[in-house]
Write a structure and sequence with these properties.
- This protein is an alpha/beta fold.
- The two termini are 37 Å apart.
- β3, α8 and β4 form a beta-alpha-beta unit.
- Helices cover 46% and strands 18% of the residues.
């Protein structure tokens, strides 16, 4: 478990100087008004769409697979807006890591925090069942204004970026734990405490069941929420965060704890989880991370790629 960002002189090596310079420029942008940040982000997103051919193709294919009922023009419009929102997400992360608490509070709205408070008061840990939406970093920062928890994360390969992400995320979390460390997650839940959990990406075949996700009938889906809830004696509370339509702030919503979860069948639980994920995404589909190759793992190794 990581409870403090560890700075070392190794991070000052000349090979990292250009990265530090870029980070310094990024940090300065947190001084800009949010409206200006969002306009810049939208521009960055449009430029990215023009040059990131493979990522554009991935997002386009995901939309085709998930929303076949949409017309081609509707999907193209959603793709365009998704890249604009992706550019804005750069500033969401900058703001989440460097804004003061006072500034965060001026731009946030929280719904359903009583569900977290009541669950903890009843002696149960809380699993915040989230999705990889683009403003997720800001969602965690906002949540930490009233109930700091434990973030589940993947350590960064670059030591400078690892230092920055740990330092940034600990502004709203008590600690961070690797997504592979089930034992510590369970220990946190039994405290009881709050942890973040996402089950909407493709983590490979080894721990997956193949179930529907939107219109895709066989999407590799992990069943870890069932295991965590059972071992941690915890409740699962769906969580969403959106950047408001006027680009002037953010709203998080915590929904009531799921009844009868975990159930007797982890596959049934996972199907239920995917339906919840779909509902959260449908609140603002343009702010979801469609650039991820969600369907790269097929049920059989010999099945052709859908990308």
């Amino acid at each position: 478990m990581v409870e403090k960002a560890q700075f070392s002189t190794h991070l000052c090596h000349p090979k990292y100087w250009l990265l530090w310079f870029g980070i310094g420029l990024m940090r300065l942008t947190q001084l800009l008004p949010l409206s200006v940040q969002m306009k810049l982000g939208s521009l960055i997103g449009r430029l990215a769409k023009a040059v990131m051919g493979s990522r554009v193709n991935t997002a386009k294919r995901n939309l085709e697979l998930c929303f076949p009922e949409m017309s081609a023009s509707e999907r193209q419009d959603l793709l365009k807006r998704n890249f604009e929102e992706t550019g804005k997400a750069i500033f969401d992360t900058i703001n989440a890591w460097w804004w003061s608490d006072a500034k965060v509070q001026r731009h946030m709205s929280i719904k359903g925090q009583q569900h977290v408070e009541n669950t903890l008061a009843d002696g149960h840990g809380v699993i915040l069942f989230a999705v990889h939406c683009l403003p997720l970093e800001m969602g965690a920062r906002i949540f930490g204004q009233f109930q700091p928890g434990v973030g589940v994360y993947r350590p960064h390969n670059n030591p400078v970026m690892e230092y920055l992400q740990v330092k940034g995320r600990l502004r709203s979390n008590k600690a961070l734990v690797s997504k592979r460390d089930l034992r510590k997650m369970v220990r946190c839940l039994r405290s009881p405490d709050v942890i973040w959990y996402t089950a909407d990406q493709d983590f490979g075949r080894s721990s997956a069941t193949f179930i529907p996700f939107f219109a895709m009938q066989e999407a590799a889906t992990i069943t870890g929420a069932t295991t965590l809830a059972r071992l941690g004696k915890a409740k699962v509370l769906p969580f969403s965060v959106v950047r408001n339509a006027d680009d002037k702030g953010y709203t998080i919503e915590i929904m009531p704890a799921l009844d009868n979860f975990p159930g007797e069948d982890e596959v049934v639980d996972a199907k239920r989880g995917n339906k919840i994920i779909e509902g959260i995404i449908n609140r603002c589909p343009s702010q979801y991370m469609w650039l991820h190759r969600r369907f790269k793992t097929r049920p059989n190794k010999d099945d052709p790629s859908v990308y």
